[in-house]
């Protein structure tokens, strides 16, 4: 039997340049799709949809059916890890995520067996998606990074300046380091279970990696991420891992690429692709980084920018994506135009 | 008559390394000071206080009296430029700034004489401050940068992702370029008038310079800033100008330093000082960049970080400052501790 050709996304994560590059979009299963909004109304809440494997699998597959993207990413949320640790998590419309603050959780759950039970819906979702996915489409699992999860747990929600986490880290560094260790362990366990359930790739979202001094970045982003990657690789030596330290400085990206051992770095919109090709692509594949607001705007500038990105990354291991999640107001036709531009013969 | 020794801040902006470095803090005239809060209550609104020269001058001088900082920065707001152009500006408690959206301004004011009349309270404030300032204290004026002001004018307020301005810039690039030109002209005029009124230094705040692709940064930040600097220098050839493209990438900072002709770059907290010394200090002086949340936290880590910053910038033209504005909850004692650490004999 002839060996099936590896999926394009996997080839790139293994270091190959593929042309046209594989393409998927952060938050591709989301509110910009009418079929998503219909199911979301049925579910009642975002969290209920995350925790219902049938619905979550359906939503994961919607953008694959509509657009034929090269990867599906499991529909879930980064706050499932705080949930596993004992936080109550809620998503009220227009308020943003809210969760129990770490110091108000009655008893922190430390048993990996309980984590696995609580997060079973995510693994069930992955199994359902896997069985319904076209053979050429890769399946991605994900988790929030320890630092980003710490910002939510310290604050009890999102914050623009990560104040509660920074004050904790600055004022009680040992206790904060313990929190990051616990989070790293739970994140690693969650990624491992997703790989067991059929994810072929996992992405670590450090959505709040901006605004940290170099020493804090080292302490709160690099160290904990290394721990996650090491633990995942111990269980799955060939695990393919994408890191996304969103808003890191260029030196932060460089350090992450050198130190964390990921297969690819997802780049935010501000990272110049030519800089990334020159400075990062010897360490790992690159993913990114179109401005989601340019996708929202559409038009000729969108197509020009896609072409420029392809030219800048030509001959390199590159995955086309956005620099951040697609915004809910994006017309689906703009996604079609994006894919046409990425996949146009050159 | 012996020539008076130049103020420390001026010496540094002229390229000299001064030890200990001059120090001031962004938003040093602000809510963390009880004497500020008392006057703010009397004024009724933030905007009223900005536009009352007696009050604004008093508030400008408060942190100088209390702490003996090396520079006073005029108490004002970046939205005075949109106000000069015809926007109605309001600061409702807990809502953030609100202003007339550009496309809803009945008639855009384009007459520099009218701008000067409308912004006369700022110039009157500077004259009042100048007369009350210790001889060793430098006086700083400021304005928002065209791009940052465009984000407010496009949105009618602040926004986390600069959506309205980006959509305008992506979708109607020629019209957006015209807006930036107009803003650059009004910003330059405002800076020139501040220099005439006694400001010895001016700072250009590009508070929303983060998240821009390299080409947008060039188009929306670098170009308009060059226009501002050129215009100011035409009127005041020896004008001392500090630029602050907050959240720019490191390559963005490098480009700004090379292209904009400023005397100093103010660095946000994420910029590694050793990187800045190596890559920027041949172009201009450096200012920054302690995390305001570390100042809020206080303690030994604050003192250690101050010492590390001084060591990293030793022998270079450097102004000690924060990476962003001081936060209202900061205890005044922490500012005292900061100043002691900066000024301790080494």
Summary, kept brief:
The structure is a homodimer of 346-residue chains. With 346 residues, chain A is of the alpha/beta class.
Describe the structure.
Two copies of one chain form a homodimer. Chain A has 346 residues and is α/β, with parallel strands linked by helices. The first copy, chain A, has one domain: TIM Barrel, CATH 3.20.20.210. Helices cover 50% and strands 13% of the residues of chain A. The first copy, chain A, is built from 16 helices and nine strands. In chain A, strands 1-4-5-6-7-8-9 form a seven-stranded parallel sheet. In chain A, β6, α12 and β7 form a beta-alpha-beta unit. In chain A, α10 (173-196) runs parallel beside α11 (214-235). The first copy, chain A, starts with 7 loop residues before the first helix and ends with a helix. The relative contact order of chain A is 0.13. The mean pLDDT of chain A is 96. The A-B interface holds A 160-163, 166-167, 170-171, 173, 210-214, 216-217, 247-252, 268-272, 275, 289, 291, 293-294, 296-297, 299, 301-302, 305, 327 and B 160-163, 166-167, 170-171, 173, 210-217, 247-252, 268-272, 275, 289, 291, 293-294, 296-297, 299, 301-302, 305, 327.
